[in-house]
Amino acid sequence: MNILIFDRNKKNSLALKELISAEPSCLVKTEENKERCISGAEDMPAHIVFINVEDMGEEVGDVIKRLRKINESPMICLTSSRVEDSVHVYRYKCQGFLKAPYHRTEVCEVIETMELFRKRSKKIEIRTFGNFDVFVNERPILFRNAKAKELLAMCVDRKGGVIKNGEAIEELWPERECDERTQRLYRKAVIYLHKTMEQYGISSFFVTRRGMCWIRTEGVNCDYYSFLRDPGDMLYTLTGEYMKEYDWAEATLGCIIRIAQKVGTEEELEFLYK
């Protein structure tokens, strides 16, 4: 579990880090500078963020807003030596408050509570064997822009790897030149995809930067990824088809079949010969 501590008081942040680091499952990072805190959260998406709000004023809201843009739903716990600062928990819809000086029992209780909140957050399931579909908390995402859905499928196929705009356009509109018109259509698909992800509460899942895009695969349940991790145990999920609505997916299907043939018996791979 990734934990980020933003505290301008180095003594406080190190004290909290020491208590949290006693938990073997926690990877802790501390920052005293606001901008480095934001960029650090981009490099290591945090599951839980501790923010010391003492004497921060309106900066509190700015930091929380920017963190939530990076990571859709981090669990945020505010800290302060003043009990009256706990009012910010309700103002900014945070999940907890921790009063300094810190005590191990209280810190453990807060982390356990945050983890419960996190487990109740959005669950993304992706199905690639057969048709391509995405579900959020078992609710299917309905795409009204076919190219936006295909772009997301390409990102899933890359397993979190970067796709450059040019190669995406080439796959999405293979019969057209990469000109101003296709670039405009691509931008339209990207904007629609961002809006759709936001609508379903997973805005941090699909990421774009200048000239490229990708998905965050952390916490995603995907049949293709599960198969790659343990092909022997996941043979039963194979159908002989992979994102069958997209021609470019045939190359990946070939790789899947070759892996399956190495680990499976003839009986287990019967679907290949029907």
Structure description:
With 274 residues, the protein is α/β, with parallel strands linked by helices. It has two domains: 118 residues, Response regulator (Rossmann fold), CATH 3.40.50.2300; 150 residues, no CATH class. Helices cover 42% and strands 17% of the residues. It contains ten helices and twelve strands. Strands 2-1-3-4-5 form a five-stranded parallel β-sheet, with helices on both faces. Strands 8-7-6-12 form a four-stranded mixed β-sheet.
List the SSEs and their pairings:
Blueprint: E1 2-6, H1 10-21, E2 27-31, H2 34-43, E3 48-52, H3 59-70, E4 75-80, H4 87-91, E5 96-99, H5 104-119, E6 124-127, E7 133-136, E8 139-140, H6 146-157, E9 163-164, H7 165-172, H8 180-199, E10 206-209, E11 212-215, E12 221-222, H9 223-229, H10 250-263
Label this structure with key terms:
274 residues; Rossmann fold; 5-stranded parallel sheet; globular
Helix content: 40-55%
Kindly provide the radius of gyration, computed on alpha-carbon positions and rounded to a whole number of angstroms: 22 Å
The number of helical segments is 10
Low-confidence stretches: none
Strand portion: 15-25%
In order across it, which strands form the biggest sheet? 2-1-3-4-5
Mean pLDDT: 87
Give the N-to-C terminal Cα separation: 45 Å
Instruction: Tell how many strands the DSSP assignment holds.
Output: 12
Largest sheet: 5 strands, parallel
- SSE string: EHEHEHEHEHEEEHEHHEEEHH
Q: Write down the domain tally.
A: 2
Q: Per the principal axes of the C-alpha atoms, what is the gross shape?
A: globular
Q: Specify the structural class.
A: alpha/beta
